[in-house]
Amino acid sequence: MTRTARSGRRLAAIAATVAVLATAACSAPVQNKGDDGASGGATSMLIAADNGSPTFDRNFNPYSSGKRNTTTYMYEPLVIINEMSGEETPWLATGYEQPDARTVVFTIRDGVTWSDGEPLTAEDVKYSFDLVKKHPEMDLKGAWSHLESVEVDGTTVVAHLQTENVPAAKILAQQLIVPEHIWAEVEDPVTWTNEEPVGSGPYTLGEFTPNQYTLKKNPTYWQADKVAVEELVQPAANSELDIVNNGYDWAYAFMSDIEDTWVKADPENNTYWFPAGAPISLIPNMTKAPYDDVDFRKGIALALDKQVIADKAEQGYVDRASQTGLMLPNQEKVLDTSIPNQGYVDQDVDAALASFEKAGYTKKGDKLVDSAGKPLKINITTPNGWSDWLQGVEQVKSQLTAIGIDVTVVQPQPAAYQKELRTGDFDMIMGTVGGSGQPFQDYNGLMGSEFLLPVGKTAAGNFGRFESKQADDLLAQLKVTTDEAEQLELTHQLEQITYEQLPMIALFYGGSWGLFSNKNFTGWPSADDPYASPKTWDSTPLLILTHLEPAQG
Amino acid sequence: MRYALRKLGLLVLTLWAAVTLNFVIPRLMPGSPADAAIAKLAQNGPVTPSVQAAIEAQLGMPGGSIWDQYVAYLNNVIHLDFGVSYTFFPQQVSELVAGALPWTLIMVGAVTVIAFVLGTLIGIGAAWKRGTWMDSLPTVGGSFLSAFPYFWTALLIVFFLGYVLGWFPTSGAYSATAVPNLSWEFLGDVLYHAALPAATILLTSLGGWILGMRNTMINTLGDDYVTFAEANGLRGRTVAIRYAARNAILPNLTGFGMALGGVVGGSLLVEQVFAYPGVGYLLFNAVTNQDFPLMQALFLMITVSVLLANFLVEILYGVLDPRTRR
C-alpha cells in the first residue's frame, strides 16, 4: 500500500468525524424553529384534509384520480348532495327540473365568475359534460352512462338521458364544472396536472411546496360573505401525533382513545363527530350453497351480536347497522316504520339454530352439521392490513364458533381482496354497501341485475350476485317515477326485501372521523346539526367552508 | 486483467437475470393496479361503479402478450424510460425517482459511509486494546444497539426527541415553507431534518461494523506475521494498521460494498417513520399500490447498484489481496 492511499483513508475518517460533529452542531441554533406550519390565527385555519405520501404532487385536475383532495374546494358542482341524508343544496345551479323522466333541466346561477374574472356560463357547464364524454377516463361520476346529449338553452342546461332515468339527475348534478376558456386549450386534459387552477370555488391556490400548501379565500366568490376563513394551511405530514400536538382546526383521522388524545389536547375547544357512513357488511356469495339459502343467511344474521362486533372493530365509535341498508339515524326519513325494530336484528341463538335447521344444518355435539353429518365450514375474506375490519371479523368468528360453525379468516392483500370481491371468488366477504344516501343508487348497487355477472367476471356492483325479479321490478319503477310519494313507497319495499332476503348481512356503520376545534372557528357539523359529512374530500366540504364563523371572544 | 474481464462477464449475466426477474415478479402479485387503487378508495367508503370504470380507464392495463410486454420492457430499460406511475398518475416514473433519490443518497448514503468508517476504526481500536474498557464498551454497546430493530429505535427517537422534547422536526426533508435552493440556510435546514433519521441508522448499524472488524482483527492479531512484526520492534500503530487491519478489513469491505449498493433502496422503515421523502418511502408506496412501472424502476435501480458495488468491491479485493487474482 502506498503512503498517499493510507493518508487518504485517514483524511476520510477525519472528514466523516467532522461531518458528524457539524450535523450535531447545526441542530442546536435552530431548535425552536419547529415544523408546525401556520399559527392558526383568527383568519387562518390549519387542516388535515389531504395527506402527502410523504410529499404533495401538484395535481389540481378535478377529473384526475390522483388529484389533491382540496381540488374540490376550487371546482364546484351544480348541486351538493349530503350523502348522509340525501339532502340537496343548489350550488352552481339554482335548481333543476325534470319535465319528464328522460330530461333534466338545470338553471345555471347568474353572476358567478371564475377566479380569473371571466363569467361562468351555461356554455361552461355544457363544455364540462362534453369534456368527460370525449375522455371517459375523466368521467368519475359516470355521467355518460346515463346521458345522451347536453344542450344549452339560454341560462339553462338541458340534459337528455338515454332512457327514462329519474335518479340520474342527482348523478349529473354532482358534475364538477371547469372553465371552457382555459380547458379548451389544454392538449391532453387526462394527464394535465392543472398547476395554476382557475375555479369558481371559495378558495384559490396560494403558495405550494411539496411539504405544504395554502388556499387563499377567493375575494370574488359568489357567496364570499359566507366564507369566514381567509386562508387554509395544509401540511403534507399529518400523523396522529402531529394532529394532537400542533393545534389543528379540522382533521379527518381515525384516532384511538379519542377522549384521551384529541380532546385532552384542548378540552375546551376540541370536539369530534363520527357519524354513521355506509354499512360494513358480510356479503355472502349467493351463487353457491349454502349461501344461496335465505334461511342460512338469516341464521348467520341472528347468530351475531352486531353491537359487540361494532365496539370491537371501531372502539365504540360507531353503532351496529340496520339490516335495511339505510344509514340511521340520518336516513330516518325514508325508513319504513313497519319494519320491526328499525331493521336492527338482535342476536337470538335459538332463532338462529331454528333457521339453520330449516337450511339443513343441525346441531351435533357442539358443531353444526349438514344432513350427511359433515361440519359446516365458512371462509370469511377481509383485506390484509385493515385492522378495524379484521377486529370485527375476529369477533364474528368467535360468535359463529360459539354456535358451532368452523370459520377461517382469509386475508389477501387489498388489491387481491378487491379482485376477489369483484370476481365473486369468496364464501363470505367483508365489504361496504350503499352509502350514497340515494336509495336507487344504493339498492341498485346492492341487488341490481344491471351489475349481475357470472363468477369469474369482474363486476362493478352486486358482488354477492343476488338475483330477485321482485327487486329488479321495484328498481325499474323507482328509476322512472318522478312522483315523490311513489319513490318513497318503492324505497320502503326495497328496504323490506333487504331486510327479509339479506343480500348482505349488515354488521356496523363505517365511521366518518371528523375532528374539529372551536378555538378559531365554530359552526362545525355535529349530531345536532348534521348538515354535512365531516369528510374532507368531494364537494360536501364546501358546505362546511361556507358555514363556519369566527369564534366569539 | 483477465480477472477483471471474467468478473465483468459475470456482471452482465447477473444483470440480465435481475432485469428479467424484475419483470416477472411484480406480475405474480395478485390483483391489478386498478384493484389496488379502488381498494385504497374503498377504505374511505364505498366506490361507485362509475368511479371504478373511470379508474380502470385512467390507469389502463399493460397491453399485448407477456412476450410483447417483455420486449417493450427491455427496450424501455435500455432507454431508461419507465413510463407513467399508477399511484401518482400522471407523473413520470423517472421524475419521481429523480425527486426521491437525492434525499436518500444524502441521508442514507452519508450515514452508511460514516457508520462504516467509524465502526471499522472503533473495531480496530477495540481489537488492539482487547480486554480493556476500550474493547468492552464498544463491543457490548454495539451489540446492544444493533439488537434493536430499526423502526423501534426510530419510533423511540421520534417520540422523545421530536414530540416530547421538541428538539427536532418529526417529518419531511426540509421545513414546510422552505423552497429548495443552494443557500447555507437551506442546507442547515436539510441537515436539521436529516439528523434524527441519520442518527437512527447510525446507532443501529454501527454495532455490526465494530463487531465484524474487531473479531476478524483479533484472529489476524494471532497470526505469525503479526507476532513477527512485533518481535521486530515495529511501532504498535504500524503493526495494527499496516499488518493486522489491512488483512482483517476484507470481510468488512464486502459488507460495505453490499451496504453501499443497498443505499439507493433507501431505508424503508426509517423513511416511513420520519416521513422522509426518499426512495424507501417511494418503494413502499409502489408496492402497496401495485404500481408496476414504479416498482420495476426502483427494483432495477437497487439491483443494478448492488451488482455494481459488488463488482467494484471484487476489483478492489484483487488489489488488496493478491491471492484472489489467481
TrEMBL record, chain A:
InterPro entries the UniProt entry points to: Peptide/Ni-bd (IPR030678), SBP_5 (IPR039424), SBP_5_dom (IPR000914)
Gene3D superfamilies: Dipeptide-binding Protein, Domain 1 (3.90.76.10), Dipeptide-binding Protein, Domain 3 (3.10.105.10), Periplasmic binding protein-like II (3.40.190.10)
Domain Solute-binding protein family: start-end pairs: 89-441
Signal sequence range: 1-27
Record keywords: Signal
Domain of life (superkingdom): Bacteria
Pfam family, one: SBP_bac_5
Alphabetized PANTHER family for the sequence: D,D-DIPEPTIDE-BINDING PERIPLASMIC PROTEIN DDPA-RELATED (PTHR30290:SF38), PERIPLASMIC BINDING COMPONENT OF ABC TRANSPORTER (PTHR30290)
Name under which the protein is recorded: ABC transporter substrate-binding protein
UniProtKB/TrEMBL annotation, chain B:
TM helices/strands, residue ranges: 103-128, 149-170, 190-211, 256-277, 297-320
Annotated localization: Cell membrane; Membrane
Annotated PROSITE patterns: ABC_TM1 (PS50928)
Membrane topology of this protein: Multi-pass membrane protein
Principal subcellular localization: membrane
CDD domains named among the record's database cross-references: TM_PBP2
Keywords for this protein: Membrane, Transmembrane, Transmembrane helix, Transport
Domain ABC transmembrane type-1: 101-313
PANTHER family named among the record's database cross-references: OLIGOPEPTIDE TRANSPORT SYSTEM PERMEASE PROTEIN
Family: Belongs to the binding-protein-dependent transport system permease family.
Protein name per its UniProtKB record: ABC transporter permease
Source organism per UniProt: Isoptericola peretonis
